[in-house]
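Exam revision sheet. Question 4 asks you to relate a sequence to its structure. Input first:
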Amino acid sequence: MLKNEPDFLNFKKARDMELTGEYGFPKIKGIHLNHPENVKLLGFNYATNPATKDKDKQWVHFFLPDYRFQQIWNNPHNYINCFRQYRGIISPDFSMYIGMPKAMQIFQVYRMAFMTSYYQRYGIKVIPSVTWAEPDTYEWCFSWIPKGSAIVCSTVGCVQNKDARRGFLHGFEAMLDRVEPSEIVWYGHEIEEATQMWGGEFYRVPDMMEMRKRGPLAPKKSVEYKLLEEGNKRLEVK
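Answer key, structure tokens:
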């Protein structure tokens, strides 16, 4: 790159990141939630509003159309102070669609890993979100998430018909085998078959449409968390 060329692909910012796997996804730290039942999510489209209350009790999510949060990729540094006001964030959920060219799918997952690593560098807590497409994406689309980490899984728009439901469950099972999550937080409607696969307890957060119908839910108490360091060493964070 030229000396004064804008870092529009965030290439310069990734130079000191540790990269892993065949596609060089930035390495991240996993996270363990002591009280996942108290996780409260707030959409990024509301997060920058100065009038938002109880920021320190909420996690910012990106389960939105990609154009609604493209600006954090374009200028990630601009949102550090904003995200520091919150309990943490969920990994930006860049869409990976079935039928999308593989190069685009890989880039979307790369961006999720990059943004997670970038904000962790500045002391912001991040819960990884999971995404997948066709079965041939399973080998790499989960590879950036440390085994044993808590994860957030969105079901919004994923189970609109039988084929979509079948594809979701197939990918969900693959995710369980590869990530072995410690806790799973649902965003959206819980799926009974997935509950049976998991065998553990799901912690469901209503999606935006449901919140609008019945009003926002207040957490019982703030979330406590621990970072999972390399080698499964856990560092407690107050």
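Marking note for examiners. The longest strand covers residues 30-33.
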